[in-house]
Amino acid sequence: MPLFQRQIIATLLLCCCAFAARGETLRLVTDAWAPYVYEEDGQAAGLDYEITREVLQRLGVKLDLQFLPWKRCLLELEQGHADGILDIFHLPERETSMLFVEEPLSDVELVLFYARNRPYPYESLEDLRDLVIGISPGYWYNDETFRNSPLFSREEAPTHEANLGKLIRHRVDLVINDRRAGLYLTTQMGLQQQVDYNRKAVGHDRLYLALRHDPALASLAKDFADELRRFKREPAYAQLQQRYANPDRLKP
């Protein structure tokens, strides 16, 4: 192999290893979605936040996490102002603008929440005919038939809390959210006696860490996935999952 080719390869390898070797800080952005990632007393918290922090610590990388509205998160990554997004759904069309870590952080079960004094049972899309479903702007709902169905209308709210507020005031008929996130939020808002959810899921998905397309970050993505798989086999991971399984335990 010619000398100049060896030099190019060596330079690329050094670039890929440099991120972790220098103890760099990884700047991530996210939108609060408790209990996966949220702020508590001005500090980042949440299941996926703790998982990500632990894995990065093992890799010698510091974590800098900023909370922004979801659409702003996507823009920050697109413009190169952030290294990645914490907790994002993996869509094929997003692969051109971001690199997804192969191992997912969490599984998501999307369900429909209803006001207990005005329940709407859900077994099929036909049950949703002429209803108004509260959704969150910029969020992805992976079930294509639900996403594109003309049977019902969709109404956005600026926050997940606002969606539940509209639900109990009967301004929307149902609200779609992840089961664990919705239960956590109803507990935080003191709405356990006013809000419940249909046990039949609308769909399932997974939350990932996605990074900018960059040689150094590509190396980090692989190392992160490998270390995350190792962490998932440890008792500490199971204990972390158990701690976030019950919303009442997390209530301040």
UniProtKB/TrEMBL annotation:
Domain spans labelled Solute-binding protein family 3/N-terminal: 25-248
Sequence intervals crossing the membrane: none
Record bears the keyword Signal: yes
InterPro entries referenced in this protein's UniProt entry, alphabetically: Solute-binding_3/MltF_N
Domain of life: Bacteria
Keywords: Signal
Protein name: Amino acid ABC transporter substrate-binding protein, PAAT family
